[in-house]
Amino acid sequence: MASxxxxxxxxxxxxxxxxxxxxxxxxxxxxxxxxxxxENAHDxxxxxxxxxGTPIPVWCSDDGEEIRVFGSIDELESATxxxxxxxxxxxxDHLEVPSGRxxxxxxxxxxxxxxxxxxxxxxxxxxxxHYPFENKEFFETKIFPANFVAExxxxxxxxxxxxxxxxxxxxxxxxxxxxxxxxxxxxSDGKKMSKSLKNYPDPNEIxxxxxxxxxRLYLINSPVVRAEPLRxxxxxxxxxxxxxxxxxxxxxxxxxxxxxxxxxxxALPFNPFAVEQSAINVLDRWIASATASLVTFVKTEMENxxxxxxxxxLVTFIGQLTNIYVxxxxxxxxxxxxxxxxxxxLSALYNVLFTLCKMMAPFTxxxxxxxxxxxxxxxxxxxxxxxSVHFCPFxxxxxxxxxxxxxxxxxxxxxxxxxxxxIRERNNKSLKTPLKRVxxxxxxxxxxxxxxxxxxxxxxxxxxxxxxxYPVRLRTPLRRTFSIRFARRT
Length: 490
Known about the structure:
By secondary structure, the protein is an alpha/beta fold. It folds into three domains: about 5-180, HUPs (Rossmann fold, 3-Layer(aba) Sandwich), CATH 3.40.50.620; about 185-230, no CATH class; about 245-400, Isoleucyl-tRNA Synthetase, Domain 1 (Orthogonal Bundle), CATH 1.10.730.10. About 45% of the residues lie in helices and about 10% in strands. Strands 6-5-8-7 form a four-stranded antiparallel beta sheet, covered by helices on one side. Strands 2-11-10 form a three-stranded parallel beta sheet. The longest helix has about 35 residues, at about 235-265.
């Protein structure tokens, strides 16, 4: 059976060059899977012997000696002398085109083939703008090539391929600048999700039970955004709800409770912007710096379409906010050090949560919007200028609040906490069991953040400065005697 082809092999070198001009996330799909497919590409058969589909606009004589290809409805109307309002088969198949060889030759008739549906998919950038008949300048100067496209890994041999082939053949350039490729979501047993097997939970039940944002964040923070398969498990969605949304909401609820308390005590509305912005408290400086660093990181990664690096940092930050800032600042937030200090702490926490709402809005649109609607009441105009978090610009990082030393100090403190947890596990000591003494050996004996951490009334701490010299006694359970030689430092 005769078929119509696109000569892909003739443009193979140009296809490989145009592939290099694009950026794929993750990059290995572009460099290996798609590159190998292009290298071994053959001519593409674009005709299909079916009834339903886009008719191929080719009229041919019975002997095959005369062929006309029409590029527009106007051309076809001019050749047939008929008005055409619909170009589906049952409206144009009966149209005949007079032969250019003279009246003694039979008229040309349309071939029966229709386009391969992937040819239509690859034509999407042009068809949606009715190019080149309309929007020609807008298309060529504003929207082509596209900023990004996104689809599944299986489209490396489908839509991604046809987009590249047609744009290269027509314009010698790729149809997109960036491409986000996701993996496939499988059932928990690793098989494809199947309606007949019913090997997946009801999506409506998942949404009603955990919410759309929990499902969205679970998928974004999974192997599927790295073009790898994901075995979908309901427990994973619940873990996101427990580890991300509940701590985040608890920090927000703690802020609201204490803001209401201050407002009742002072009979004045809470204004987070009336407080001096230059924080003095080390925890306030740290959370402001950590927020600015997070904004910078997220903006950079989002501009490069790397979703799989963004969410883990957001999850870590929420954990730090609740487990460090709120935990060690609880007494300040409750008013232990006076009203002024409480306002400073509440303002710092408010600014963090407000920034976090804007930053998380693309990932958790419903939860962020709900929280924003309450937080915006503290804005100078009560949020009238920005009625929705999705109208707000992405937050900008404040260089003035960046303090790398304080951030490193918190990182050291977390190492101390994690090391202590591991020592407890090795010695079968519960986290709630009090310890008599903890010794921390640290290179900076003046570390401010460690000093905050060591202020625990249930423990006796010794903070050793490595810049000083301490006597060392070695003890071993071995019965045999042994010797240790120390090399003299010169």
